[in-house]
Amino acid sequence: xxxxxxxxxxxxxxxxxxxxxxxxxxxxxxxxxxxxxxxxxxxxxxxxxxxxxxxxxxxxxxxxxxxxxxxxxxxxxxxxxxxxxxxxxxxxxxxxxxxxxxxxx
Length: 105
Fold this sequence. Notes:
- The protein is mainly α.
- Helices cover 51% and strands 9% of the residues.
- It has five helices and two strands.
- The protein has helices spanning 20-37, 55-62, 67-74, 78-85, 92-103, and strands spanning 4-7, 13-17.
- Strand 1 and strand 2 form a beta hairpin.
- The longest helix is centred in the first third of the chain and has 18 residues, at 20-37.
- The protein is elongated and about 50 Å long.
- The two termini are 30 Å apart.
């Protein structure tokens, strides 16, 4: 897996997404540099809520589940979970069903 670089609107490199094993290897160095420089703003914690609009997908991601795991808990297919996660609007009833399945973990 390679590093992903996210560019700003003016095309300059702005952020890097690291595979978790690389982040874990660098975690202590990152913490030490933040402490030394006091520049916490150089490191941005990823919050899925900033990028994921669908409440079903967001709930699943925050629960640390895959689509397949959620599908098994709900007794549906992974394709069905994918389908509801791509919708612009989901019903409150569907959100309740998903949250119930997640909380049964």
